């Protein structure tokens, strides 16, 4: 059977629809039983290919003669629906038969109308209050059937579903009855675009590694891996018996099932058996973030088989990193799992609680790592269109996209305009350009970038951004969100909002000047260069003392300022020593939050402080990357201290165990430790900068990255201070190696290296000694 979605391969962007968007008259609104729309039709003879073009308001699954069309999940996907609605395109030649046929489209609330946003203020019906479907089934001779008001509707066995809610399914109601008609909805078909990214798909299921019964007789399953997905099980039992599945990411002390951190997300499924032999169930229109499942069975229902099923828009890896340190290897795996779980249609913060939103800050700090680990080009391009759709009139970029608050600001006013978050509109296109040579994305986003940096300038009307401290006020910033402050009796210095905001103001302005140059827009380039110079000067004046010590003597300030060349040459040495001291004073523990963390190790590497990079990266206490791994984490935590050393769960009000942001350190593993980076002058890896900064304690290291040209591999081993480094480049990639201070007496393929060496396709051996620091 051929169920391949065709949109991605046939470059279809839009089409002329003959059909109407039709809503089921059986529908009673958000949070009630789900409906289907259906039509019985005749086909004299089936001429192939028979193709189905389909979309929906809400989520849909389509069946032709009882067989499911395709295996994509959560279709049509999630976009800022009032701007774009995705459609899918399937070859259904094998499903349509001569004679009588029936097509059924199951509908559910999905992101379109199930409540989104947190707590009691959650917003239902964000983009509309009616579920509906549009479909054209066409053969070579034209339309076979398409949605119109001759279609019927009725209720599904899905009695309730929602993104945070989960799903209630009554198998006794599986015989569908066409009880109602349908109504045509006013709908602008110009909104329909072919699905812009790969469909969400299942990954191989995961069997439990342990299970036990709690005091109330419920079975708890441990699947060993935190995921975004669902539980699938096979059950036998009498009609009316019930299986309830609840989810959790962690166990509290005493292996206590604890999902308080899901906040108001019910995140459960309830399945009522029809008594008809063995039945297999997994939710249709929801997913959860979990490692553990607590199963309550009533009325003699017996689970015969159970697994957890991860789902993702990016199931395939394009990068891997292995070292001699098992905790580091697990950290990389945890990042991969957090990316999978949070790359479900939209790059989200977390997959479990009443949030699961496309936070722009999280996405921008993680974007480069995402591109190392999976092919994220189409995924981010789609996301950027949502970010642009949600951009406010004054240029503010929303805190998350698709933004459920834009059309309903009442409960959540002013959810736009934070530096570090809104900068996603500049940073992500730049990452796509460097990784995929995607110039088109720069063109597409240019105007939105300009509007964003002008917005930030306008907050304080000048180079130093002075954001208001009140959440919701114009220009509010999250600063260096979740920066750890150490012992709260004597907290460590943290970066202040004005410094954090000004740093990012500079980063985006400077990047925009580069982007303008690439696009040949000289006027913009000159304007942004002038502005960047003004910010740089004002920054030094405002935030660096004449001694070279930064006003906010903290890791984030130094890391970002050094990484983006904001420390004047005169202060360089002194500031470097202050940076070193700040890290020593913190006992080599991390002192950075969301925006400082990705910059910390790259800044240390850039400054040649490899000894500090090694100590900070490899220390296992909190706060530190390996602390969570040593606590058994299987995904990246939202907070450095999400769990206390004794296993106590940090306050559950804002504590996710699956937040990819701090996994952004993987970019440094590829670019510094493995020493391969995309070059800005010849992006898309046609040129690869080879510049290894080995951390001896990680030896041996192997890394790979699949690019359009083929596979890039890097591998090194360290004996004493002697490093043997091998890099393999595919045809179409040229490497450039310029020995630095850490590459003493370098030999390339047996020959001493003088100046920059150009590496052609093939494997090259580089031998050098590490300096004694
Ligand atoms: C989210 C984030 C986000 C942050 C910004 C949190 O609730 O989970 O990851 O970036 O809010 O404030």
Automatic annotation (TrEMBL):
Residue ranges annotated for the Alpha-L-rhamnosidase six-hairpin glycosidase domain, each copy included: 318-673
Domain called Bacterial alpha-L-rhamnosidase N-terminal: residue spans: 50-200
All copies of domain Alpha-L-rhamnosidase concanavalin-like, residue ranges: 216-300
GO BP terms, alphabetized: carbohydrate metabolic process
Reaction(s) the record says it catalyses: Hydrolysis of terminal non-reducing alpha-L-rhamnose residues in alpha-L-rhamnosides
GO MF terms, alphabetically ordered: alpha-L-rhamnosidase activity
This protein's UniProt keywords: Glycosidase, Hydrolase, Plasmid
EC numbers for this chain: 3.2.1.40
Classification via Pfam families: Bac_rhamnosid, Bac_rhamnosid6H, Bac_rhamnosid_C, Bac_rhamnosid_N
Protein name stated in the entry: alpha-L-rhamnosidase
Domain Alpha-L-rhamnosidase C-terminal, chain residue ranges per copy: 675-732
PANTHER family found in the cross-reference section: ALPHA-RHAMNOSIDASE (EUROFUNG), ALPHA-RHAMNOSIDASE (EUROFUNG)-RELATED
Source species taxonomy: Bacteria, Pseudomonadati, Pseudomonadota, Alphaproteobacteria, Hyphomicrobiales
Keyword field contains Manganese: no
Domain of life of the native organism: Bacteria
